[in-house]
Write a structure and sequence with these properties.
15 strands, single chain, alpha/beta, 2 domains, 3-stranded antiparallel β-sheet
C-alpha cells in the first residue's frame, strides 16, 4: 500500500501560525504545473512498482487549482503508476473556494472523492487571530455545499488553544461539527512554530500568547465530547466514524511508502527518505528532477526503528513488540520493553499482549514518550 502526495504551495495570504512552504505570488503557476507533470514521470521508480492506493493534494491551497489542472496531474499519475480502482483522492481546500460552481466542476470533471477543509474555527475573532482568508459564514457554507452535492467523505480541521477561543466557544465548534454529521475530524493544538508570523507577533506583544493550561483543557474537552458521539480516536489528532479513517495519512502512521511531489515535498520508501527544494524558483527552473531534490538519506536501522516508534505510538494500533522483534531484532525488542516500563507505571501507556498503546493521559505526552524510546539520539 503506497500513496502519492502533491504539494501545491500557492496561497492568497499567509496564516499567522503556518510553517509549511507556501508562496503568495502566482508568477510561476503555469511553469509549476509543467514541472509537476515532469516530476511525476521521472519519479515512477521510487515506489518500486507498488500499487498506489491514495493521492493527496496538500498545501498551501490546492483548491486554487482549476479542475482541468487537477485532472491533468491525476491522469499523469495513472499513466505512470498502478492506481487502484476507487483510490482515495483527497483535495485540501479553503472554505472560500468551495462554491457550488467549483464543487460541481470538480464532481463532473475530476475523480476527487474526499475533501479536507481548513475550517479551524466557526468564530470570526478566532479566524482573525489566525489570519485566515475566510469568515465563519463561508465555513458553514462550504460544508453545506459539499453535503448538498453528495460528498459524504469529508474531514474538517479545527484548532484549539487559540487565545480568543473560550471553553464555551470550543464546545460550540465541536457541536457544529457534530450537527453536520461529518465522518472525520482533524484537530490540532495551536503551536507557535519558529520563524512564523505568530511567533513574531507574540514576541512583539501585538497579540495574546497561547496558554498551556488552556490547550490541555481544550484537548480534554475534545476527547470527552468525541467519545460521547461514537468517533474513534485512531491517531493523536484524528477522529473518525468506522470506515472513514484517512487512508492516505494512515500510510504515514503505519510505516507505508509514499512519494512526495512539488517543492518541499517529502518521500519515504522504507529504506530512504528524500525531500525537494523549498523554493518555487529553484523547483521550476531545475534542469532535471535530480536538481529538484534538496537532500536524500539512507536510513540507518536506528532511524527506521525510531520512525516506527514515533508513528505507531500515535495511533490506536500502538507499538507491537512482535513487529519490533521480526523487523529489528531482539536487542531492539528488549530495549523497548525496558524503556516503556516507567510510562506503564505512570498510567501513560497500557499493555495488551504484545501491543502497547497510549492511554488518555499519555496522549498529552506522545512526543516525549516516543523520544525517550528512541535509539541513537
Amino acid at each position: 500500500m503506497a500513496g502519492i502526495y502533491i504539494h501545491i504551495p500557492f496561497c492568497r495570504k499567509k496564516c499567522h501560525y503556518c510553517n509549511f512552504y507556501t508562496v503568495i505570488s502566482h508568477k510561476y503557476r503555469n511553469q509549476f504545473i509543467s514541472k509537476l507533470l515532469q516530476e511525476i514521470e521521472s519519479r515512477h521508480h521510487y515506489l518500486n512498482n507498488q500499487t498506489v492506493n491514495t493521492i493527496y493534494f496538500g498545501g498551501g491551497t490546492p483548491s486554487i487549482l482549476e479542475p482541468s489542472e487537477i485532472n491533468a496531474l491525476i491522469n499523469k499519475i495513472k499513466s505512470h503508476f498502478t492506481v487502484i480502482e476507487n483510490a482515495e483522492i483527497t483535495l485540501e481546500a479553503n472554505p472560500d473556494d468551495l462554491s457550488i460552481d467549483y464543487l460541481k466542476k470538480l464532481k463532473n470533471e475530476t475523480p476527487i472523492n474526499r475533501f479536507s477543509v481548513g475550517i479551524q474555527s466557526f468564530f470570526d475573532d478566532d479566524l482573525t487571530y489566525l489570519n485566515r482568508s475566510h469568515h465563519s459564514k463561508q465555513a458553514r457554507l462550504a460544508i453545506e455545499n459539499a453535503i448538498y452535492l453528495g460528498y459524504n467523505n469529508m474531514t474538517i480541521d479545527l484548532i484549539y488553544g487559540i487565545p480568543t477561543l473560550t471553553n464555551e466557544k470550543w464546545m460550540k465548534n465541536l457541536d457544529i461539527f457534530f450537527e453536520y454529521g461529518l465522518p472525520h475530524l482533524s484537530s490540532y493544538a495551536l503551536t507557535v512554530e519558529p520563524k512564523t508570523n505568530l511567533e513574531v507577533l507574540i514576541n512583539k506583544k501585538k497579540i495574546a500568547s497561547t496558554e498551556e493550561d488552556q490547550i490541555v483543557r481544550h484537548f480534554e474537552i475534545l476527547i470527552e465530547e468525541i467519545d460521547k458521539q461514537g468517533y474513534i480516536h485512531y491517531e493523536i489528532s484524528n477522529f473518525a466514524k468506522e470506515g472513514y479513517y484517512s487512508k492516505h495519512n494512515s500510510i504515514y502512521w503505519l510505516g507505508g511508502h509514499y512519494l512526495g511531489l512539488g517543492p518541499s515535498a517529502h518521500s519515504f520508501n522504507g529504506l530512504t527518505r528524500q525531500w525537494n527544494v523549498k523554493n518555487m524558483k529553484q523547483y521550476c527552473e531545475a534542469k532535471s528532477t535530480d536538481t529538484m531534490m534538496l537532500e536524500k538519506e539512507i536510513l540507518s536501522v536506528d532511524q527506521q526503528y525510531n520512525e516506527y516508534i514515533m508513528t505507531s505510538l500515535r495511533t490506536t494500533w500502538g507499538c507491537d513488540t512482535e513487529h519490533i522483534m521480526n523487523v529489528f531484532g531482539m536487542e531492539f525488542q528488549i530495549g523497548f520493553e525496558e524503556g516503556i516500563i516507567p510510562f506503564i507505571q505512570q498510567n501513560k501507556v497500557r499493555k495488551t499482549g504484545n501491543n502497547y498503546q497510549l492511554t488518555g493521559a499519555g496522549k498529552l505526552f506522545a512526543d516525549g514518550i516516543a523520544g525517550a524510546l528512541f535509539r541513537g539520539c
